[in-house]
Amino acid sequence: MPSEKTLALKKAQCEALIGKLQTAVSGVIVNYQGITVEQDTQLRSEMRKAGVEYKVYKNTLTERAFDAVGFSELKPLLTGMNALAISQNDPVAPAKILKEYAEKIPTFEIKAGFVEGRILDQKGVLALAEIPSKETLVCKIMLSMQSPLYKLAYALQAIIDKSGEAPAEAAAEPAAE
Length: 177
Prior knowledge:
Blueprint (H helix, E strand, L loop, with lengths): L3 H20 L2 E6 L5 H13 L2 E4 L3 H11 L12 E6 L5 H12 L4 E7 L2 E3 L1 H8 L4 H30 L3 H10 L1
Antiparallel strand pairs: 1-3, 1-4, 2-3, 4-5
Helix pairs in contact: 1-3, 4-5
C-alpha cells in the first residue's frame, strides 16, 4: 500500500492534469516509442516554442483525468508508451508538430486527440494538422478583403485615364473662367 505522502502526490498530479485538460484548447496522444533522445529533445523544443506542453504521464493517471473531464472514449488508447501534448492557445499546433515527427519516425504514432472538448480519432488529428496556421489564415482573409479595394482603385484609375484629364485639372478649369 502506498504511503500517505505518495497518494497525496499522485492526487495532486491528477488534479493538475485535470485542470490542464479542462482549460486546454486541444491535445494529442502519441505513442512515442522509437524516438531517440536527440529527436525527443528537438520535439520538446519545438513544442515549447509553439506554447504546447508535451509530457509523459502514467497511463493510469491519464485515465483518471480523462474520466474526470469526460474523455473516457480515449482510455482504451492508453496502452504502451504514451505522451500527451496539450495546447492552451493554438488548436492546431500540437497536431501539426507531432505529424511532422510521425512522418519522420515510423514507430512514432499519433493515436487520437481532442479539440475544444470534441474527441478526434487519428484521422481527425491528421486532418487538423493540415489546417494552415492562424497567421496564414488571417493573412488570406486580409488579402481577400483588400482585393475588392484594389479592383475599385484600378477601375477608377482606368476611367480617369480614359477621360484624358485628371479630376483636379477638370475642377480647376471652370473656376479659372
